[in-house]
Amino acid sequence: MTIQNRLIKGVKIIMRAKYLFHLALVVSLSFKVLAAVPRPAPGVRPLPGRIPGQPAKPQPVSWGEKQIVAMATITNIKQGPTGRSFPPLFNHALTMKIEGVLRGGLEVGSELTANHSARQQQKPVYPEGKIVVALSNVRGGLRVEAFEKADEKKLRSIRLACELPLGWKSLNGKITSPWQMHKERAWPKAQKVNAKHFCSATGRPALLVGSDAAFSVEKVPPAKEIKWTNPDGDGEYKITVTNPTDKPLVIEALRRQGKRILWKESLVVLCQGKSYSVPGSVGLLRPSEPVSLKPGQSISTIVNALAVEGPNWPKGGYRIEFQFCLGERSSKQSFYYMSRHHDVIRSGLKKQVN
């Protein structure tokens, strides 16, 4: 072995020894830190798959976004199964007598039964006497969304909220519409309409449908149905307005210019507590007229809810609710969203809108 080879071998031995020394030093320091700072004992955590409890502080009710609002008296309470979550999920069937109607097609004096679910620590206590109750019609059944005892001052506020079209808001004496982002483009200044309320930001009048017209929403089947992926379709919904009477009907909330029906400037979508104009809405730059329907006439349009910009879209597979609104009329739809499938569709719709 030459002197040069011996030198190279010696250097390698020294470098290996130095590496082993540093490794031993790091390991010993790690054990020292672990010994000095013991890990805390694990705390109590929710069971896997359980939804966290509601906030301790109750959230105010957005009465203006509710599908049906009525004065009622609870006449019977039937307890259902209690979900074994943390906090528990209490379920009850409430039978109520309708004392007055603020919004929706209920009849005064009628009785109905609706399901109420509450995720909380204690079993819910239902008030005696007259209450204000918000209901929604989901999957063919009535659901109690909120209820509370209300004095006259509170009732005045709720009545105002229910006089406005769905998606409109009244805050600190100012009324705003879902088209406020269009500003002066939302409604032509030259057009004057007889209305009780107006948007403070745009001047757009609060226009309603009326109780005689029928309003319905149904899912459009997907072009390709995929098991466990799109049972509710790919976001398309058919919205229909019908005149079921034997007389002509004027639908103030649904606007037209000539023969062109302005669905995008008339419809509103509610999702996750926020209101959105329909994608593609640009505002009403020119005067418009209300749509008139002949006896028995129906008109329809297709809206894709996945084109709405703003909601927090679920990850994985989860349900999300859309409420399609025209004036004071609405329909709430539960939609199963699968991100790996519907994210791609949303991306394509976004390119079309832009």
Task: Return Rg in Å.
Answer: 30 Å
Sheet with most strands: strand arrangement: 3-2-1-4-5
The coarse overall form would be: extended
Which architecture name of the largest domain does CATH use?
Answer: Sandwich
The overall average pLDDT, rounded, is 87
What kind of sheet is the major sheet?
A: 5 strands, antiparallel
- For this structure, the CATH topology of the largest domain is Immunoglobulin-like
Helix coverage percent? 10-25%
Overall strand count: 17
What CATH first level of the largest domain would be assigned?
Mainly Beta
Number of domains: 2
How would you briefly describe this protein structure?
This protein has helices at 3-36, 152-163, 339-353; strands at 68-79, 89-103, 111-119, 130-138, 141-148, 169-171, 174-176, 214-219, 236-242, 249-257, 260-261, 268-271, 274-277, 289-293, 298-304, 317-326, 329-338. By secondary structure, the protein is α+β, with helices and mostly antiparallel strands. The chain has 2 domains: 63-163, OB fold (Dihydrolipoamide Acetyltransferase, E2P) (Beta Barrel), CATH 2.40.50; 207-353, Immunoglobulin-like (Sandwich).
